[in-house]
Write a structure and sequence with these properties.
Shape: globular
CATH architecture: Beta Barrel
Structural class: alpha+beta
Radius of gyration: 18 Å
Number of domains: 1
CATH topology: Thrombin, subunit H
Helix content: 10-25%
Largest sheet: 6 strands, antiparallel, barrel
Strand content: 25-35%
Low-confidence stretches: 4-32, 182-188
Number of helices: 5
CATH superfamily: Trypsin-like serine proteases
Order of helices and strands: HEEEEEEEEEEEEEHEEEEEEEHHH
Distance between the termini: 35 Å
Mean pLDDT: 88
Length: 318
């Protein structure tokens, strides 16, 4: 999932001719996220899809009765009146003549404050240590019969679960692989998307604000952007990250695959929504300390290294 290509694909996803209520679910066999499987009927009901122009363009996760987290790049330049939220297990796409309809209208959205972007070029500071690819969506009415997920913010659980060798569970509506029709010479002749799937992926690296998680044939892909990366705890699944992008192709395991760590944005989410989080003071202080210490580095690579090393030090001192 080429990181620089994400917004372009989001803007290209469009069209169809007849109306299909996407709350209807059609069963298909052997459908996979990339190396994953379809969710069961009552699994992961709090994972939702972002719909525009009759098509699913991104994924997201419910954290409150009217609050959804997704990737910021899914929202840049979008008209709020053109967006809606789809709940349920989805529908198989692409499908000629099918128009997807979300059940919930969007009241507004907010992007992480340090992101720099234009409506035409999208986010221009991808990957910088303090640029979190996270957006908050507010719906016009309460989401019904959906249990919100909690963000992983307890520091002891972060130290235990968010590290190399542990695994995340990614749930989204995205592509089952690369599509050669996009002109990059991809080898897969058929992919699909639109049905909610899950896949377990090992963590191979962590910095101050992102996870790198990947393996051969196990990955998130286009339209999974904004999907939650869960970790399993004794209290159930908790949101560790959100799908952001990759420097490579879906499932190839050659380059980093990025997931924005939501706990690094906990202070901002709290300020915007008023939602409480465990160990919030720690996360606010950690984020501020890293920002002040590493922003003095003009070289983005040096700033990123500074942020990772300082974050590791802060957690190791707990």
């Amino acid at each position: 999932m080429l990181r620089s290509f994400l917004l372009s694909l989001t803007l290209l996803s469009t069209l169809s001719c007849s109306v299909q209520d996407a709350a209807d679910f059609v069963q298909f066999q052997e459908a996979k996220i990339v190396g994953g499987e379809l969710v069961d009927k009552n699994e992961f009901k709090g994972v939702v899809a972002l719909v525009r122009g009759g098509d699913i363009i991104c994924s997201g996760v419910v954290i409150d009765k009217r609050t959804i987290l997704t990737a910021a790049h899914c929202l840049v330049g979008q008209n709020v009146y053109a967006l809606s939220i789809l709940v349920g297990r989805g529908t198989k796409l692409p499908h000629p003549g099918k128009v997807v309809k979300g059940q919930y209208r969007i009241d507004g959205y907010e992007l992480f404050p340090t992101l720099r972007y234009t409506n035409f070029h999208g986010i221009t500071n991808y990957g910088e240590f303090n640029a979190n690819d996270i957006g908050i969506i507010t719906t016009q009415k309460d989401l019904v019969n959906i249990q919100p997920y909690q963000v992983l913010t307890k520091t002891d659980l972060i130290k235990e679960k968010v590290k190399k060798g542990e695994k995340i569970v990614v749930v989204g509506y995205g592509y089952t692989g690369e599509d050669r029709n996009f002109g990059f010479g991809f080898t897969e002749s058929h992919v699909e998307y639109g049905l909610k799937r899950k896949v377990e992926i090992p963590i191979v690296g962590v910095n101050n604000h992102e996870i790198d998680a990947r393996a051969d044939g196990l990955d998130s892909c286009y339209v999974d952007s904004g999907a939650p990366a869960f970790v399993k705890t004794d209290q159930g699944y908790k949101i560790a990250g959100l799908v952001s992008g990759s420097d490579g192709l879906c499932g190839e395991n050659e380059f980093p695959a990025y997931y924005s760590l939501v706990y690094d944005s906990a202070c901002w989410i709290n300020q915007y929504t008023g939602m409480p989080f465990d160990d919030l003071d720690f996360h606010c202080e950690r984020h501020e300390r890293i920002s002040k210490a590493c922003s003095v580095n003009e070289d983005p690579k040096e700033a990123k290294l500074c942020a990772k090393e300082l974050s590791d030090e802060i957690f190791s001192n707990l």
